[in-house]
Specification:
The complex is a heterodimer of chains A (302) and B (270). Chain A has 302 residues and is an alpha/beta fold. Chain A contains 10 helices and 16 strands. In chain A, strands 3-4-7-8-9-10-15-16 form an 8-stranded parallel barrel, surrounded by 6 helices. A 4-stranded antiparallel β-sheet of chain A has the order 5-6-14-11, with no helix packed on it. In chain A, strands 1-2 form a two-stranded antiparallel ribbon. Chain B has 6 helices and 17 strands. By secondary structure, chain B is of the alpha/beta class. Classes of the chains: A alpha/beta (302), B alpha/beta (270).
Chain lengths: 302, 270
């Protein structure tokens, strides 16, 4: 039997396990349509806030060895504008990423998408470079509990929490989110990092500190997926440096049901989705798997 | 050490050329940017200020690269103010380039949109017959005329300045002059770069005459390498799929010529 690469993250069904990570290319429905056609299983939007945000001044994204360093500053057109922009969507599997500081921010934004066809929400509890949101929320387990509880009671679609490495134990964030009823976890976000130019002796990013993505963080992300999947009974989406089918399989073996791809677009551009999908399919055929599910977390048996 | 193309490489400005009271060309040594294709750009870091996408200008000196900047916003004004001996960071090159055709070629540029077109001139064959139209508001804003004539000295060519107020060269809009030229001469290709409304008209005129035409687009950019999505025009990314697009594609694009996105990603009308 030919293997199928469709997968399921809790109640979220995906035709393919390769999703576009939040923050990447995610501001127009036309671009989403193109990436879906290119093989992405789902498209996660840029993190949306209540109001439009311009983000930081450039440089906001630069290459470093084995990855990218960014502090874009969560620039986005705001949830109301975005909801209107994708309101005509019928067929594209979109997951809306939300960022905010308090429960009311999130419930306001969910209201905007009430009549829009989306697969689910991803709560950004882990952006490492903007004050009062992202990791600063994720590090506060009481606040995480309140936000997840409130979002879950307002949302008609599944809700995912994206966690990252902040100043508190990310496993505690996962635990609290699970307790509050979260449907799935995305792990991980970029890792707080910086780069300084030696000629001018200046930090290069305008925000000085940003988040590191790409191959440099992949082993960290694999470890996190493995730890979460070992400790909690929760669907996981692996994210961090996936740039080949081997990387995707590694995340699946560690315990994730799907992966998100971001930085790899820099090197491989939009062909990366079909390349990874094909590689996963061939691997499954070779190893005799018929469903992604059969592989999820299988490295844990050792 | 192998150069990391996506991280700014800091270079020292060696020469500043005053093009007009608001436009300067900054020249520096960089063998990578000295050899890029016409239409390609670099992200230019003005330390402590900002980083801007800049089309790479032609330099007539070997292994020298250049950018031409008009002071406009805070970042471009800071770049314009960079002095000899000061530093900027460059990363890239990024983007595609003009496909180089042969025969009777027409280049239509406005303002600093002339930059990739002047670079294109250095890639043309001596057998090409080249017409360059340079649009400007007024006499004081005409630049690159001498340089274009110099690059084309061994070609059959004409460089025509067009000013809106008629203070220099031909009077009117560059597209009006283009329309007249198209009725007299059968061109083999048209290349354009400049204000988007101008380019929109240029590709319409070229396509009416069924002449292959390419335009180099400008958009607000953050990463420059196809990651952040800021520069999307419908489903294409100017930094990665462009900056150069064929006219047939652009005429089918609903955003080109009408809207662009601001820093938050909201569409605004031109």
């Amino acid at each position: 039997m030919k293997p199928g690469i469709s997968t399921q993250v809790g109640a979220i069904k995906l035709e393919r396990p390769t999703m576009l990570a939040s923050g990447i290319l995610g501001i127009s429905l036309d671009v989403f349509a193109r990436l879906y056609k290119e093989g992405a299983g789902a498209l996660v939007t840029k993190s949306l806030s209540k109001e439009p945000w311009e983000g930081y001044a450039n440089p906001t994204l630069i290459g470093v060895k084995a990855g990218y360093l960014n502090a874009v500053g969560l620039s986005n057109p705001g949830a109301p504008y975005f909801a209107k922009m994708i309101s005509s969507n019928k067929t594209i599997p979109i997951i809306v990423s939300l960022v905010g500081s308090v429960e009311e921010d999130f419930t306001f934004m969910i209201k905007q998408f009430e009549n829009v066809k989306i697969l689910g929400y991803e709560l950004n509890l882990s952006c490492p470079h903007v004050a009062k949101v992202g990791l600063e929320v994720g590090d506060d387990s009481e606040l995480v509990h309140k936000i997840v509880k409130s979002v879950k009671s307002h949302s008609k679609v599944p809700v995912i929490a994206k966690v990252g490495l902040g100043s508190s134990d990310y496993l505690e964030t996962v635990r609290v989110a699970c307790e509050a009823g979260i449907d799935a976890i995305t792990a991980i976000n970029t890792v707080r990092a910086m780069a300084i130019d030696v000629e001018t002796a200046r930090p290069i990013l305008s925000n000085k500190i940003g988040g590191l993505s790409g191959p440099a963080i992949k082993p960290i992300a694999v470890r996190c997926v493995y730890e979460i999947s070992s400790k909690f009974d929760i669907p996981i989406i692996g994210c961090g440096g996936v740039s080949s089918w081997e990387d995707a399989i590694e995340f699946i073996l560690a315990g994730s049901s799907a992966v998100q791809i971001g930085s790899a677009l820099g090197d491989k551009w939009i062909g990366v989705f079909s390349e990874i999908n094909n590689g996963i399919s061939k691997y499954m055929e070779k190893k005799g798997f018929t469903k992604i599910k059969e592989m999820v977390g299988s490295a844990k048996r050792f | 050490m192998q150069r990391d193309f996506d991280k700014p490489t800091v270079v020292k400005i060696e020469k500043v050329i005053e093009e007009t009271p608001t436009v300067r060309t900054l020249v520096f040594s960089d063998e990578v940017l000295a050899n890029v294709l016409p239409g390609q750009f670099a992200m230019v870091w003005i330390p402590g200020v900002n980083e801007l996408p800049m089309s790479v200008m032609a330099s007539l000196e070997k292994e020298k690269a250049a950018f031409t900047v008009r002071k406009h916003g805070a970042a471009s004004t800071a770049l314009y103010g960079i002095k000899v001996g000061e530093y900027i960071g460059v990363r890239g090159p990024y983007g595609n380039s003009f496909s180089i055709k042969q025969g009777k070629l027409l280049l239509v540029g406005g303002g600093t949109g002339l930059v990739p077109l002047i670079r294109l001139l250095t890639f043309l064959k001596k057998t090409d017959e080249v017409t360059v139209l340079m649009g400007a508001k007024t006499k004081g804003e005409v630049f690159f005329e001498k340089m274009a004539n110099h690059i084309l000295e061994n070609n059959k060519h004409q460089v025509i300045a067009v000013t809106e107020d008629g203070s220099y060269g031909k009077a009117g809009l560059v597209t009006d002059v283009m329309e007249r030229l198209l009725s007299e001469t059968k061109f083999d290709a048209v290349y354009t770069c400049g204000p988007e409304k101008m380019m929109h008209k240029v590709i319409q005129l070229a396509s009416e005459k069924k002449i292959p035409c390419q335009a180099s687009l400008e958009r607000m950019m953050k990463c420059g390498m196809g990651i952040c999505g800021s520069c999307c025009v419908e489903e294409v990314l100017v930094c990665r799929d462009g900056t150069v697009f064929d006219s047939e594609y652009l005429l089918s694009n609903k955003e080109f010529g009408y809207t662009h996105r601001n820093k938050a990603g909201i569409l605004e009308n031109y």
